[in-house]
Amino acid sequence: MNALTAATGPSSAVFARSVREGLRDPGPALFLPALPPLLLVIAMTSLFGRLNGVIAFPTGSFKEFFVPGAIMIVAIAGGGFTSAQVAEDLRSGFIDRLRLQVRGPLILLLGRFGFEAIRIIPGVAAVLCVGLLFGGALPNGLPGALVITLLAMLLSAAYAGLFYIAAIVTEDPQTPLNLNPVGIIVSFLSTAFIPRAAMPSWADTAAGLNPVTVIVDGARAAMIGDLTSATVAAALAVATAGVAISVVASGAVLNRKLSRG
Amino acid sequence: MTTPSIEAHDLTKHFGELVAVDHLSFSVSPGEIFGLLGRNGSGKTTTVRMLTTLLRPTSGAAVIAGFDVARQPDDVRRSSGVTLQDAALDPNMTGREHLNLIGRLLQFGKREVTARATELLEAFGLSAAADRRIGTYSGGMQRRLDIATALFARPPVLFLDEPTSGLDPQSRRALWDEILRLRADGTTVLLTTQYLEEADQLADRIGVIDSGKLIAGGTPRELRAAHGLRTITVPGEHHLTTLVVTVTAGTVTARDGLTIIDVLPDASIDEALAQIRSVAGTLEDITVTKASLEDVFVHLTGREINTASARSTDRAAA
Ligand SMILES: Nc1ncnc2c1ncn2[C@@H]1O[C@H](COP(=O)(O)OP(=O)(O)O)[C@@H](O)[C@H]1O
Ligand SMILES: [Mg+2]
Q1: pTM surpassing 0.90?
Q2: Residue A225 to residues A49, A58, A141, A204, A208, Cα–Cα distance (Å)
Q3: Protein residue whose Cα sits closest to atom 10 of ligand 1
């Protein structure tokens, strides 16, 4: 508890620094995450509307099925924006200046995870609105929208851990760009685009192992299915666990890197 | 007896095969400025990084303001301020944003942070530039901001790793004044430098470091006295062999129409002059020079280089 309160001041300062970075560079921080899913929503709903008869969608029509998947892609496209600055701090040596002021280097990452969670909110809102205009549905109303936003925030923070680890190991400010292809793989090998039943068996196996699948399924249930279902609970649990694993792992990697001097 | 502010006991750091710092021991009293003087690559930065908890020593120990570097790193950090050799700052932040971040990381309250940041910006002549990006600051301004950062929590011990390297002479002098003012306020300062003049001007005591070893230490005056080879220069090339045995350090050079005699530290110049006159007759234009700290340094590290090459010759012969 003591450690928690002790971390809030420093973490809010690191968070504020990330916010300034984001506002200075709003393209990649705020707009880029929404761009691919917006294009996908418009293209897919316009072109593939007739998939309904071809593939059996577990919930709703293709359009209703696809919009929650697209919203989750906001959390993955343009992922790990702040990892560039983590690499830059390591490369320049500014990290030494910062870590001299705090108890453990993890404190220098917590605020960044927080910013990774909130920076995608505008993108989520944009994709949700455009999705509804292009044939999506939101029978669960505001509560459904809030849960899906929360899931996207958790996914964005969890996913950022991967970028932090890569940025700490390589000290390369290009990390967000370098890891961009990973986003394509984890979204296609999940249920973001099509149901598992419609996948070839190898992809079905991969999607079954992919935690993003659980989160996307939960997002879909929150938007057009049963908001109080186990599917939503499982998604929240997996996303939260993902954040915890990312925080602990990236903190450990940073600690190891710095203690080697 | 007061407890030292900085104590190093056999501090050692290996990087693989390389021994960067080799059994370094010294202590610095409260309110003292200690200058760690050495050339590039002699182990100064490695020493500072170990004393400030940024680097774990391979062996040996250090105590800062009563706290053990290995066992109480948080206390050491709280009691010391550090500027590192490459003043690493985020060029995209403003000076004020930077100090605010530092203060918040140190867990000061918001209002306190704002007040202290303003105070430091004022004290270091950065008020006008406070809301400009650090990337637009001159080298001297960045260095001042870095020192202001180190002083945020008013630490009793300050480490400055080559604080004036890369600065123009004017900024360097201005920084010297800042450092002397800090000592006047009771801060203990360990600074590293490659510049003899700087160590001479600022330090109460100097430790000369070479190849990771402390090869000499003392006040600038003591160093001059212990290692400063006073020399007597006599016109004409004389053969003063008897003198060599009795009063000099053993080196008499007769060359280019001059005879240069190095006088042993504890020998009397007057006695030496009397003996020279008795051997060489009455001589005009005798000059006596006291070695500068520069000469001391060259003497010390030059000897180090010579023994090193002698050793490698031995190995080659064996
Ligand atoms: N992280 C490191 N890994 C390997 N060698 C290092 C490292 N840091 C310093 N060294 C080496 O240790 C020696 C001392 O370096 P340093 O302490 O930076 O000297 P100075 O600060 O006096 O210039 C040098 O030979 C340097 O190359
Ligand atoms: Mg150095």
Answers
A1: no
A2: 20, 10, 11, 22, 20
A3: B20
